[in-house]
Design a protein that fits this description.
The complex is a heterodimer of chains A (128) and B (239).
Chain A (H helix, E strand, L loop, with lengths): L2 H23 L5 H19 L1 H11 L4 H44 L10 H6 L3
Chain B lengths: L3 E7 L6 H11 L4 E6 L6 H7 L3 E4 L5 H15 L4 E4 L11 H9 L4 E5 L12 H18 L11 E3 L1 H10 L6 H11 L4 E5 L14 H18 L12
Parallel strand pairs in B: 1-2, 1-4, 2-3, 5-7
Antiparallel strand pairs in B: 4-6, 5-6
The chains are: A mainly alpha (128), B alpha/beta (239).
Chain lengths: 128, 239
């Protein structure tokens, strides 16, 4: 890669890193979600700053085409991020469902439409 | 005497609920009915309340699994000894609830009302559904080691230990009935089928189309395979 390309990459990465850290500072992004992005950003900065680093790492891993190392790393990290999101989503869905169920049980005693009906007294008493 | 809570999951069932609830009160005067209004857009909740049921209204549609888990939790909170699951569309005969609860009296944890072992039945399920059900039966036979003829029946009775267990763990996605059946077997609860008669739905439309069944079968397959225990547990003591 040319020096200009490396410089471009460096500037872009620093910009994105600053953006993410700013989101965390403003409490719009939870710190736990930022960890992976910050690690990726720091790694990219290292590669951008030192042009020979990518070649050396590729050589160590036995990858003859250095850019392939980047794609491999990108795919691997993106995979981790997406699995993490699926996991969080499952957890959130379960929590939302439980909240809905608890609300329904609460509404037995306090109907939302304000109509206590004939059953409200019985529900508080439980089984006969 | 054991106290029984009839849990009726209802999604837009204002047409069929009055008949079901009135018949319940006539045939089973000492059972309480809880209608879990599963985010209905019509006046299901008001109709149910007017016909003497306790109503738990979910803020949005969770599916039968969520509605049932709400019912189980209500039963635990209010100290009921057993729960009977009954459809709101009138396909289950309240008079046959006693068949299921009588089976629980014999130390069974889950009594499933089966429409296929029935003496005589006018219930017609359609060809695709029937084929799919046969496939499910086979999978359940392999995984649970027990033969069931009607794995997706929504007419079931649950013992107190199973009610407590399901108050926390009842499966949530569509076709949760099969999942629940397997889960109970995996956990060592005693599950038994009881022949019942079923009627055609009195109102409303069936909740899923054949195309979507494929997706749900795939999901169920994954659940079945991934949750199967490596060794089957010893049967639990029932209380």
């Amino acid at each position: 890669m040319s020096t200009r390309a490396h410089l471009l990459l460096l500037v872009a990465t620093v910009g994105i890193l600053a953006f993410i850290i700013n989101l965390v500072r403003q409490r719009q992004l939870r710190a736990k979600y930022s960890i992976l992005w910050i690690i990726i950003g720091l790694g990219l900065i290292a590669f951008a700053a030192s042009p020979a680093l990518l070649d050396r790492v590729s050589l160590t891993l036995g990858i003859s085409y250095p850019p392939a190392t980047l794609f491999l790393a990108a795919l691997g990290l993106l995979f981790l991020v997406v699995v993490h999101f699926s996991w969080e989503l499952s957890r959130l869905e379960e929590r939302t469902r439980r909240l809905a169920e608890e609300l329904a049980l609460f509404r037995v005693e306090v109907p939302a439409d304000g109509d206590p009906g004939p059953a409200s007294g019985r529900s508080a008493a439980g089984p006969k | 005497m054991a106290t029984t809570l009839i849990v009726i999951p209802a999604f837009n069932e204002q047409e069929s609920l009055p008949a079901v609830l009135d018949e319940l009160r006539r045939t089973l005067p000492d059972c309480d009915a809880l209608v879990v209004d599963d985010g209905s857009a019509d006046s299901t909740a008001a109709v149910a309340r007017r016909h003497g049921a306790v109503v738990a209204s979910l803020p949005f549609n969770l599916g039968i699994g969520g509605a049932l888990r709400t019912g189980f939790r209500y039963a635990v909170l209010h100290g009921y000894d057993r729960v009977v699951q009954l459809d709101a569309d009138g396909q289950h005969d309240p008079a046959e609830v006693k068949l299921l609860t009588a089976t629980l009296d014999d130390g069974v944890d889950m009594a499933i009302g089966s429409r296929f072992t029935a003496r005589e039945s006018t219930y017609d399920v359609g060809r695709v559904r029937f084929g799919a059900m046969r496939l499910l039966r086979l999978a359940v036979l392999v995984l649970s080691g027990q033969r069931f003829t009607d794995t997706s029946s929504g007419f079931r009775a649950f013992s107190a230990p199973l009610v407590r267990f399901f108050a926390d763990t009842y499966p949530q996605e569509y076709m949760e009935s099969v999942e629940a059946l397997l889960l109970a077997c995996y956990e060592g609860f005693k599950v038994v089928e009881v022949p019942v008669l079923m009627r055609q739905r009195s109102a409303g439309v069936p909740s899923a189309r054949n195309i979507r069944l494929l997706y749900h079968y795939l999901r169920l397959l994954i659940v079945m395979v991934t949750t199967a225990p490596l060794r089957s547990k010893r049967p639990r003591a029932t209380g």
